[in-house]
Amino acid sequence: DRPIAWMFPGQGAQYVNMGAELYRHEPTFRRAFDRCCDLLRPHLQGAPTQDLRSVVYPAATQPETAAQQLQQTALAQPALFAVEYALARLWQEWGVQPQAMIGHSVGEYVAACLAGVLSLEDALMLVAARGRLMQALPAGAMLSVPLAERALAPLLGPGLEIAGVNSPTQCVVSGTHAAITALQAQLSGQGVKSRLLHTSHAFHSAVMEPILDDFAAIVRTVDLKPPTIPYISSATGTWITAAEATSPRYWADQLRKPVRFADGIATLAREPALIFVEVGPGVTLSSLVRKQVDPHGQQLVVAAMRHPDDRQADLPVLLAALGQLWLAGAAVDGAGLYAHQSRRRVPLPTYPFERETCWIGGAARQQAEMIQPRSAPTEAAAAMTAHPRPQRLRPYIAPSNPLEQHIAAIWQDLIGIEQVGSNDHFFELGGNSLVASLLVARLRETFPVEVPLRHIFDYATVAELAAAIESLLIEKLTAIPDDQIPSLSPSA
After folding, report:
1. Residue 243 and residue 225: Cα distance in Å, rounded?
2. How many Cα atoms sit within 13 Å of 407 on the Cβ side?
3. Fewer beta carbons below 10 Å: N end or C end of the chain?
4. Of 261, 255, 256, 258, nearest in space to 238 by CA
């Protein structure tokens, strides 16, 4: 019965087909998502579509159109709410109940709805109105900057504001396109690698002020109640009060004030045995929390859905997360888990076909040399920012060959964690798309082959990536005629 805190991501986490396999195979998820879509129809007037199903789960011939529509704030925020609410209802059917919650920006509306502050109907109406009003504002940009709030604030000129403090060393800046471009160039000149976010507006900044009174007036039309489940306010970074939750002005100010996610996690982390569960698409919040909690403590961080570039199927990812919770001591309801399954006997294979690579011809003579990297990570680089290996449920398995050892050393250097093993998963260790790009560059410098960025997502463990790079080496070797392979004898 370890306590659980649900975390609901905000805009920017959405992607086409988020939770598609859950929608197809989990009746509880599908019913909750369909109900949200049906209730939203009258509130999506003027949007490209009034049926979110066609945007979130589009036809196979329309993924690009759906992706463009899902970037529009008027559709992105309701779509995120619907997926996160449906996933929360599925968790509840499986017996996983939160003792606390936190939502990032629009994610707070899911927490408020589950806590009884808002009915589902009212929550969806407000989220749709919020997105519609925001989209009508002038366009803007947002920039993710790996600096602490205190270090970043003096660098901000006119037209720029801190829109979110996501971790002690990670902030988001909102502003006009010109101001954001200038800031990014300034940071680059100082050696700080920032990243533009996929947003259309400068959220949580002064640009939002023209809609605050209009939105507060809409909130006054609904019945707000005190929360029955404690949750963190994204505007204050501490526990929501009954007065705040039932105040229309609070909900208007919440879309203007910066998101204090790091403060909220610090508040939650006072519970030493807490399990953080990201209930929504992607792994952004999980990655942020892992950087903030004690890696030696009992606290566990679990993501329930895959990264958009992760090729794993949705259901295995969710079931693996459930298994992590159960192993860590969280309550799980087995009857709810199997309620919709029909089990039947199936034949099992009698022999495992083990595919092994056999080296033949002249290629064998260069195998050892090609697998050895061009350069090995220095001890200084490996120790520069390495933190002790967190307590993870995947057991540490030492790299089994030189190729795995060198890949693990590069991961340790980039992610900053000691003892990366063969079985460790890139995204579970805190990797993201930015680190993946850096990793590809390092691999290309280290090995005499071109490693595609896609490999980092398709082969996400050290062992899988080592096998993929070995295959690339084999392909390169087999393309060289035997008579052109240099001799590796001592006399050469």
Report:
1. 9
2. 31
3. C
4. 261
Residue 288: closest CA among 311, 316, 269, 314:
269
> 160-167 and 195-196: which strand pairing?
unpaired
> ∠ at Cα 265 (82, 329), nearest 5°?
80
Express each pLDDT in 278-317 by its tens digit.
Answer: 999 999 999 999 989 988 889 999 999 999 988 889 999 9
Is 112 in contact with 98 (CB distance < 8 Å)?
no
pTM, whole model, 2 decimals? Answer: 0.73
User: What does the alpha-carbon distance between residue 49 and residue 117 come to, in Å, rounded to a whole number?
Assistant: 28
**Encoded tokens for 469:** 């790079």
Tokens 């080496």 label which residue?
Answer: 473
Print burial letters for 17-33: b (CB count within 10 Å at least 16), e (below 16). bbbebbbeebebbbebb
- Contacts of residue 391, Cβ cutoff 8 Å, sequence gap at least 6: 295, 296, 297, 298, 300
| Dihedral angle of Cα 339, 89, 18, 47, to the nearest 10 degrees | 130
Instruction: Give pLDDT tens digits for 53-96.
Output: 999 999 887 888 888 899 899 999 999 999 999 999 999 999 99
In angstroms, what CA-CA distances link 245 with 9, 25, 254, 425, 442?
Answer: 19, 35, 11, 39, 48
Question: Is residue 12 within 8 Å of 283, Cβ to Cβ?
Answer: no
Q: How many CB atoms lie within 10 A of CB 348?
A: 5
CB contact at 8 A, 173 and 142? yes
